[in-house]
Amino acid sequence: MKKIYLLIALVAFTVTSCKKSFIDLTPQDQISGANFYQTETDFRQALASTYVTLRALFNSDFYMSEMRSDNADYDYYPVNVGTAYVYREYIHDWVDDAYDSYTGDIYRYCYVGISRANTILDKLQTATAVSASSKSEIQGEAEFLRALYYFRLVRYFGGVPLSLHEVTTADQAFIPRASADDIYKQIIADASDAITKLPTVAFAKGQQTGAATKGAATMLLADIYMTQKNYAGAETLLTTLPGMGYGLLPTYASVFSSTNKNSVESIFEVQYMAGASGGQQSSFIYLFLPRTTDTKLITSGVTTNNSTSGGWNVPTQDLLNAYEPGDTRLDASIGIAEGTYNSSYIFTISAYKSIINYKPAAGKIGRPFDKKVLNPVATANNTDDDWPVYRYADALLMLAEAQNEQGKSGPALTGLNAVRARAFGNALHNITTTDQTALRTIIAHERRIELAFENHRWFDLLRTGTAINVMSAFATQLKVLHPYLSTASYNVQPFRLLYPIPLSERNVNPGLVQNPGYTF
């Protein structure tokens, strides 16, 4: 009997204690989701993590953008047929499917960024220790980032799940795909509001930090409008950028110098920083050089073995042929690693040479590479190159396209020729035709050359409706050049203008309907 009374007393004590929050799941001595989002410092730290996700995204984005286009190829490497290699090759060869982990990574990175932005936007509503002005700016940055991530997703995959709040339940996580139109409505709303909330950048040294600005949001919204063929809306936005202080640097090569990061020409770039601590550096040059056991002849004398990581984003002959004589952008964009391949398809670099009038030495092969990401190196696999997302030259060419599409071919020449005058060092190569059809082709060509390897070419082909024709012609060239390509490769079908929804996502969310044309 005493045991029964003791048990009853224990239960009563437990119930009473629970009512007094005896069990408190929020730790008071460490940061948690329940107590973190309080101060401006908290929100700035959360924003930093949302920007950091851009690094993960752009470390791989070129596989799905530049390498899907006629600008870039890869080094054939039959020695290793593991998925880490072939999944990247499949994207380039137009035979990728829903199993591909690289398209899956891009999908996932975008949603990581979106999730972080959503949490910031939700928590900001109840933050009482943050000033109104700081709240407005933080909201603008989070909206810009969310719009940027969704804009990537909708162009790669079409309609995707539209999540706009912090996910706290399974029902919120496993939602069906929204229409592409609904995604565009949201990113327009986000980018439009960001424009009203973000500051105009100051171009004094060190003042532009890489954070989103009014100019970045303006450029993003203009890009969205161009994709939707709202040329008048894009023109209105783009004409406001000069008043914000943006301009062209004197030479094309200087744009990509690591000493000119976040310059007057930079509208938005993904931030990387070399350093001994690691984690924030870039390493693009090692991905883009041929696979070799020693890169030192090109990478500032610093010995680096990239034999398991190099060989990607190789400039195509089709792109090389597109440069006009006298265009300084050729030498600024592309270098030559000269040497020989061994039987294991590993390259020994014997010289670093200019591409201008290049002829290989006897018994040597000249392998072109993207040198926009080549800057002084102090530590192996640790470079300081940012990734340009938007710059002012892009804005000028976008404005020229928007004006030409509205029949304003005369005004379109202004921005177009400003870009060309820098490229050639004079006005002797200025374009004078005002024929709309001819000018459309010229502007598209100019964008290809000016923005080569900056992940714009694929989206330009999609936006202008030329992807199928251009890539079909390119496929014919490539199959002659590369007899190792399978018969299935480069079957350029319209359904492949969208990537498949990753199978890994559909396995956890069966409500995600696959894009047409893909079997699983």
Can you give a write-up of this model?
It is a single chain. Helix 6 runs antiparallel to helix 8, helix 10 (231-238) runs antiparallel to helix 14 (392-405) and helix 14 (392-405) runs antiparallel to helix 15 (409-424). This protein has 520 residues and is mainly alpha-helical. It folds into 3 domains: 36-198 and 467-520, Alpha Horseshoe (Serine Threonine Protein Phosphatase 5, Tetratricopeptide repeat); 204-267 and 389-464, Serine Threonine Protein Phosphatase 5, Tetratricopeptide repeat (Alpha Horseshoe), CATH 1.25.40.390; 296-321 and 336-378, no CATH class. The N and C termini lie far apart (65 Å). The strands form 3 sheets. Strands 5-4-6 form a 3-stranded antiparallel beta sheet. The radius of gyration is 26 Å and the shape is globular. It contains 19 helices and 7 strands. Helix content is 45%, strand content 7%. Strand 4 (334-341) and strand 5 form a beta hairpin. The protein has helices at residues 2-19, 40-58, 61-64, 83-93, 101-124, 132-157, 170-173, 180-197, 214-227, 231-238, 284-288, 317-322, 329-333, 392-405, 409-424, 436-450, 457-463, 467-481, 503-508, and strands spanning 72-73, 266-270, 314-315, 334-341, 347-354, 365-370, 387-391.
